[in-house]
């Protein structure tokens, strides 16, 4: 495969159609091979076409208008070529440098630490008093608890805090917002939050707030006005209401209803869906977006249920945020392919759930083959531009999913292997609170247990491992983020997976034994990270669930 390219206005003069640039095959899926080449465009515009050569040596010219014989008459037709008319700076995707250099730590505020008992909600339970928390339980976690434990987080090495919602809400999870402009009183107040942001920034820790603008809580003043006044409510057009008065039929499950005459998140009557095409709703959301940046200097928004909100609003949202901070990070919750949100004028990145799913399917659930696993990862990497891949948030577990240790059936060696693999990938890793000390938990609410603070109940070996892994990630961020990926060995019979990430200056090699027998591999280079492996000179014996990372 080779490329023919040049300025669209100089084809006849420069005859650049007679010059080809060889391309390199980079990644492959079970359907496609992907080829790349780096070229420059001095005049900020580009025409290009491809010469595709078959195994038999025959070649064709692949263009915007299809496939043609590789002949002069077709090579000199200017309108045949794919074209990038002009590279406008305002249209370029902006990749904030600090994001690439971040390891996030996700905090579910109600369960991280209770630093101030004076603001505990009514009927608060003693910290960690139940093995499995109930959906309606409160334990008193708050922002003071986070502030009190910044030394712990700094020692762990994370440099970004991703908070589940902290705004005033009825529930313990706070995704049923009452007021986006107020801190929930059970978490503290704005002065406390301002102090927390300031102290985090002093330590080089960035702050990302979670907000859900797809829906609002059913105890919000806007929705209560609709319930009371029906069609006469000034907020009736803030929602998707099909008739008045609003109603639904309760079911045994508090979170689900039927016969609703208004749109909601899923079938949850307590989360009526906002009409984000409404001008007043738009202004309300944009005011919120700017308020927390202007007043508290937050660094990022994580947007819940982002794929169910219209693109029109997200473009305005991104513009409003970036006017205040050029390097602001906007992260969308999208569980599927996300190209339409990642063109540079909406989200910086999305939560990389498809990537996560492939890791879980292979390492933890064993539902796909090693070849399919690699194909899936390659497919994800080729969906988006490189700058986007560098911004994607990579995590295995969250407040919405079972914890990693539970997915690993309590196998901590397997948990470590999965985390090591994740931290070697392009994108920014995120650690769910408590994983670093070996907490477990099933599907929510079980994954939202109170953080364990008693040292004797913590897995300190896991903490040391995570501290070393985070440090390794941050020390080698440039190679892991900017480096080219190459799969060196894919051996499904023995579960051997070897890959490298390389720049002209450095190469990192990861060797993973995902099989059930020890493997032996030759090694050349400085060993940087070892888990369950014996090394004798340049010979490695790697146990099952083991890995080695080496530098060349």
Question: What descriptive keywords fit this protein?
Answer:
Immunoglobulin-like; alpha/beta; 16 helices; 552 residues; TIM Barrel; Oligo-1,6-glucosidase, domain 2; 4 domains; 26 strands; 27% helix
Q: Can you characterise this structure?
A:
The strands form six sheets. An eight-stranded parallel β-sheet has the order 18-17-16-13-10-9-20-19. Helix 14 runs parallel beside helix 15. It is α/β, with parallel strands linked by helices and 552 residues long. It has 16 helices and 26 strands. It is globular and about 75 Å long. It folds into four domains: 90 residues, Immunoglobulins (Immunoglobulin-like, Sandwich), CATH 2.60.40.10; 315 residues, Alpha-Beta Barrel (TIM Barrel), CATH 3.20.20.80; 61 residues, Oligo-1,6-glucosidase, Domain 2 (Oligo-1,6-glucosidase, domain 2), CATH 3.90.400; 72 residues, Immunoglobulin-like (Sandwich). The model has no long low-confidence stretch (mean pLDDT 95).
Short description:
The protein has 552 residues and is α/β, with parallel strands linked by helices.
Measured between the Cα atoms of the first and last residue, the distance is 30 Å
Could you please say which CATH topology of the largest domain applies here?
TIM Barrel
How many distinct helices?
16
Enumerate the spans where pLDDT stays under 50 for 5 or more consecutive residues. Answer: none
Name given to the CATH homologous superfamily of the largest domain = Glycosidases
In the CATH hierarchy, what is the architecture of the largest domain at level 2?
Alpha-Beta Barrel
Q: How is the biggest beta sheet arranged?
A: 8 strands, parallel
Q: Helical percent range?
A: 25-40%
Mean pLDDT across the residues is: 95
Shape field: globular
Number of strands: 26
So what's the CATH class of the largest domain?
Alpha Beta
Tell me the count of domains: 4
Strand arrangement within the widest β-sheet reads 18-17-16-13-10-9-20-19
